[in-house]
């Protein structure tokens, strides 16, 4: 299955915010991105992330 055929829900479950929060390293990465001031912490959780300029 290619990326283009996968649903947004499946992508969010694989690469989304709650998935990042499960692991210690994921929480550290989110903490780092938040400290840097990133508007979008997890791109797959936000469907409009490709429109944002960071």
From TrEMBL:
Molecular functions (GO terms): structural constituent of ribosome
Entry keyword annotation includes Ribosomal protein: yes
Family annotation (Pfam families): Ribosomal_L34
Classification via InterPro entries: Ribosomal_bL34 (IPR000271)
Family recorded in the similarity comment: Belongs to the bacterial ribosomal protein bL34 family.
Superkingdom classification of source: Eukaryota
Protein name (record): Ribosomal protein L34
The keyword Ribonucleoprotein appears for this protein: yes
Keywords: Ribonucleoprotein, Ribosomal protein
